[in-house]
Design brief:
The protein has eight helices and four strands; from the N terminus they run H-H-H-E-H-E-H-E-H-E-H-H. The chain is of the alpha/beta class. The longest helix has 22 residues.
């Protein structure tokens, strides 16, 4: 992902379409290296493993704001689908509030089959943040498991990649909890890139 994103950011910045991203890329890379130790199997309080355990046996539904983490939510959904071979869905605030929220009114006994993950960025608009809090409270009252994840402080790329790293590891651990080996998916991707 880094090899596909960093060159694009550099091209866009050299074309004058965005600010110079070299410092932001370097910060994000350093942060990823610093955080990596938290996701090892032997790490106490491993947040990715804990998340995988929390959503295991459910259909995860991932929500995020539409400004920064929308692509991260979609990526996590796809990682769960591909690595853990589990259904998952994603949507964004505020669009979610216009229609999908109504679907929670009548769950027909399916309430225990879902887990809702809300990705919160510390730069989300205050109205989006308030909406997330209201929705989380409402869903918990309906008996749905709600997991709220907050971003770390830092630049945009650091906050994005904090979630990507954590959630990618969570999809890996979820695959293991499902009794699957996620490594063939990695090998398939590498073979496609080499071809």
């Amino acid at each position: 992902l880094g090899y596909s994103l960093a060159p694009l950011l550099m091209i866009l910045s050299r074309a004058g379409l965005c600010e110079d991203q070299r410092e932001n890329i370097a910060r994000a890379a350093a942060s990823l290296r610093n955080w990596a130790g938290a996701y090892t199997p032997e790490s106490a309080g491993n947040p990715a493993l804990n998340l995988a355990r929390d959503i295991h046996g459910t259909i995860p539904i991932i929500y995020a704001g539409c400004d920064l983490l929308d692509a991260v939510a979609l990526r996590f959904k796809c990682q769960i689908n591909e690595n853990a071979e589990t259904l998952a869905f994603a949507n964004v605030f505020p669009e979610f509030n216009h229609n999908e929220l109504v679907g929670y009114n009548s769950l027909y006994g399916l309430d225990k089959g879902f887990s809702v993950i809300i990705l919160k960025d510390n730069q989300d608009h205050k109205r989006i943040r308030a909406s997330m809090d209201i929705v989380a409270r409402y869903l918990k009252e309906k008996g749905i498991k709600v997991i709220e994840l907050d971003s770390r402080p830092g630049q945009d790329l650091e906050r994005i990649f904090y979630f990507i790293q954590c959630l990618d590891f969570a999809s890996y651990y979820l695959a293991l909890l499902n009794g699957l080996d996620p490594v063939p998916v990695v090998h398939d991707v590498l073979n496609v890139r080499r071809a």
